[in-house]
Amino acid sequence: MPSRRDFLRLTAAGAASLALPTERLAALAGDPLRPFQVPLRIPPVAEPVLRAGGRDLYEMTMREARVEMIPGVRTTIWGFDGRFPGPTFKVKRGREVVVRRINRLKVPTTTHLHGGKVPWKSDGHPSLLIPPGGAYEYVYPNDQEAATLWYHDHLCKKTSRNTYMGLAGMYIIEDEEEESLNLPRGRYDVPLVLQDRDFNKRGELRFRDAVDEILGNVVLVNGRPTPYMKVAARKYRFRILNASHTRGYRLALDNRMPLIQIASDQGLLTAPYPAPDIPLWPAERAEVIVDFSLFPVGTSVVLHDLQDPTDPASARPVMRFDVAREAEDTSSLPPVLRPVERLLPGPGTVRREFVLSQNLDKNRWEINGKPFDAARVDAEPRLGDTEIWTFVNRSSMVHPMHVHLVRFQILERSNAPITPGELGWKDTVRVDPSANSVSIIMRFEGFTGRYMFHCHNLAHEDHSMMGQMLVRPGDDATARAAEPEFAGGYAAGRAGLPFRCDFRS
Ligand code: C2O
Ligand code: CU
Ligand code: CU
């Protein structure tokens, strides 16, 4: 573990050799990992290289870079366009996007759009790799409601490492319905990507592959340790993404004002929900409105992580907001956000059960007693069908379970009520340990082909806690329209995948 003293020594040396300005020296005099030393950074918005034929083409290069995360220290990362996190996409519903991803790293990669309804060959299947020096065009139709998605690496057995090094970013879909609500926008609509990391003495990221958990001592927000942000005394919209490997957060404001949650993984809730705290497990998103006009200019409020909600002393800071100036605010927070159609089971509803367990002999995690195997299909839902999946957790750890392609609703959690913040559309759900279960309901829409479902604790995912579904054509019109794509993908699958991803040995 890098001790505080190590960092002191490191920064003292750095300060002497670089002849930093006095202000910087003062900042470095203490522990550079002390909270609130650095301002929050907002990742740049990705710009298309070409807009033509009704679609936008982006180019994004995965490469190594040396960036400043800890003040005064350069850290080696692997980033989209050399950034940690990658640039933010802001796209419009219904406008197709092609992202040409170029791999300039020394390792293969594959990129998944988490929460995206995309053709399976653009889904970052662990068998469709971009080799070092290669490139691949991902097609994102964006034919789905406004939501905060994210993109990240999905390489077979190496997702944790690649993502730890920085291969992740936010992807925002906007639509007219949401725009008409006049929520805070522009510079008052702020992405917050939460990732915990460990650094070694030289300030380099220290990744350690593990089966159970990958936790870091430092919580980064948009790639900076426990930053501060100067805000105006008005409403802001924060899009919070937990892009951590294992860590679950319970987010709250230190002054006990509720966070007004307006959206979850797949877009707006039906109505704003004043949440005393928001549990956020890996890959989950929560969007909140904070109205800083309620605090006098000159005051600060800390967003913190309540480790133990009954003990306020256990909270640890995530970032601080400093109310720095007055500002005009013409945005609104409407009492109703959007209708969310409740999915209900019918006579034809297919039910599946997935038991989540640890195999201590083989040192891996399993779904229904099996490790992942890309040559095996674990479920074959039909397009147009509604299914109920129950995840039963027969282990001692939380599993945030994620299903590609679809959005779902939570029907039931065995050990706790479903909070209003969880009643909207989701794509990842926490399943609590010790024989607890969660049931979700979803309708298969959009595309046929091969998609993953897995635990989003990346240590678990990389240690085989993943399954594959083959979405087949159904009877309805959407299904028929999708069949040509299906034929190709399915045949290729039957013929054997180009890359073997399994845990048999
Ligand atoms: Cu965000 Cu398959 O994952
Ligand atoms: Cu996903
Ligand atoms: Cu898990």
Task: Provide the fold topology.
Elements (H helix, E strand, L loop, with lengths): L3 H15 L3 H7 L21 E3 L2 E14 L5 E7 L8 E4 L3 E8 L7 E4 L20 E6 L6 E7 L5 H6 L3 E7 L1 H4 L9 E9 L20 E4 L2 E2 L2 E6 L1 E8 L6 E5 L5 E6 L2 E9 L2 E3 L4 E7 L8 E6 L10 E11 L23 E10 L4 E4 L18 E8 L5 E5 L4 E6 L14 E4 L4 E8 L5 E7 L2 H5 L3 E6 L5 H18 L11
Parallel strand pairs: 2-5, 4-9, 10-14, 13-21, 22-24
Antiparallel strand pairs: 1-2, 2-3, 5-7, 6-8, 8-9, 10-11, 11-12, 14-19, 15-18, 15-20, 16-17, 16-19, 20-21, 22-23, 24-28, 25-27, 25-29, 26-28, 29-30
Walk me through the structure.
By secondary structure, this protein is mainly beta. The protein has three domains: 11-178, Sandwich (Immunoglobulin-like); 186-326, Sandwich (Immunoglobulin-like), CATH 2.60.40.420; 350-494, Immunoglobulin-like (Sandwich). The chain contains six helices and 30 strands. It has helices at 4-18, 22-28, 159-164, 176-179, 458-462, 477-494; strands spanning 50-52, 55-68, 74-80, 89-92, 96-103, 111-114, 135-140, 147-153, 168-174, 189-197, 218-221, 224-225, 228-233, 235-242, 249-253, 259-264, 267-275, 278-280, 285-291, 300-305, 316-326, 350-359, 364-367, 386-393, 399-403, 408-413, 428-431, 436-443, 449-455, 466-471. Strands 12-11-10-14-19-16-17 form a seven-stranded mixed sheet, with no helix packed on it. Strands 1, 2, 3, 5 and 7 form a five-stranded mixed sheet that branches. Residues 1-29 and 479-497 have low confidence and may be disordered. The structure holds CU-O-CU linkage and copper (II) ion (2 copies). Residues 112, 114, 402, 404 line the site of one copper (II) ion.
